[in-house]
Amino acid sequence: MSTSQHTPVVPLEAGAGPENPPCPACGEPLFGWLAQRPRLRGPVSRCESCGLGVVGDSAGPEEALRELDRLAAAAGPRFPNRASYASSLGSAGWAGLEPGCRYLFTVESVRRLVARRDQVVKSARWAPAASLAATWQTILNSVTFGHNVALGALGKAQATLAARPWQRRIDALASIVLAVPALAIALPIELAGGAFRRGAVVAVRFELL
User: Fold this and answer.
1) Which of 131, 111, 130, 127 is nearest to 119 (CA)?
2) Are 87 and 81 in contact, with CB atoms under 8 Å apart?
3) Is residue 10 predicted with pLDDT exceeding 50?
4) Global pTM?
5) Is residue 141 within 8 Å of 110, Cβ to Cβ?
6) How many whole angstroms separate alpha carbon 93 and alpha carbon 150?
7) Phi-psi region for residue 195, left (φ > 0), alpha (ψ -120 to 50) or beta?
8) Residue 107 CB contacts under 8 Å (≥ 6 apart), including other chains
């Protein structure tokens, strides 16, 4: 006679504690994702429930909403999607990890945040051109010493240049020589991302309840 063993399901709440503070969007514990990088204000954690990423310490939902409002004032709002294929593939090289960023949004985390002030996400749509550029840059980041060098040169992102002049020269050359191959790789990734709601950049629209 055979017996079957079942692995118990551990709820996310079981991980809550000083090392895993609550997510500003949904309250579930945040878990470590990326170690600190020189260009970032701290290590990066993420929520396994709503997908929100937090760089450094979080001050809570009010600060996250202020960051969302800042994005809304600047671009509609439009944000790099931490739930994107580009983010998953790029990890620390993801183009969305710009200097000064604090919150890395997903559509679900935005939905939960704005619900705190009686708003709903009326629409969430893939931004094809911006997404393709972000994924293209993410691929280039895997071969450069600096971060977001190509988009920074085009005035479309905040670049972090390599520390040494010879590294910066290599980065410039690599960004030119590999531009077309990187685009050929980025295009199918973003087409799949758009089809499966995992695009690199998402534009959302809010409405009051």
Assistant:
1) 111
2) yes
3) no
4) 0.88
5) no
6) 13
7) alpha
8) 81, 83, 121, 124, 197, 202, 204
Q: How far apart are CA 183 and CA 139, in angstroms?
A: 9
- What would the two tokens of residue 66 be? 């202020």
Amino acid at 110: V
Q: In what order do the strands lie in the sheet with 53-55?
A: 30-34, 44-47, 53-55, 103-104
For tokens 């995992």, what's the residue?
198
User: Using CB atoms within 10 A of its CB, is residue 177 exposed (0-12), middle (13-18) or buried (19+)?
Assistant: exposed
The Cα 201–Cα 184 span in angstroms is 18
What CA–CA distance (Å, rounded) separates 80 from 86? 10
Question: CA–CA separation, 135 vs 95, rounded Å?
Answer: 7
- Split at pLDDT 50, 70, 90, the class of 73 is confident
Band of residue 11 on the pLDDT scale cut at 50, 70, 90: low
> By three-state DSSP, how is residue 189 classified?
helix
Cβ distance 96 to 80 under 8 Å? yes
Q: Is pLDDT of 16 > 70?
A: no
Q: Which of these, 154, 200, 201, lies nearest to 176 by C-alpha position?
A: 154
Here the tokens at position 112 are 């939960």
Q: How far apart are CA 95 and CA 108, in angstroms?
A: 20
C-alpha closest to that of 82 among 134, 12, 148, 146 = 134
Please state the length of the chain: 209
pLDDT value at residue 3: 47
Phi-psi group of 155: left, alpha or beta (phi > 0 → left; psi -120 to 50 → alpha; rest → beta): left
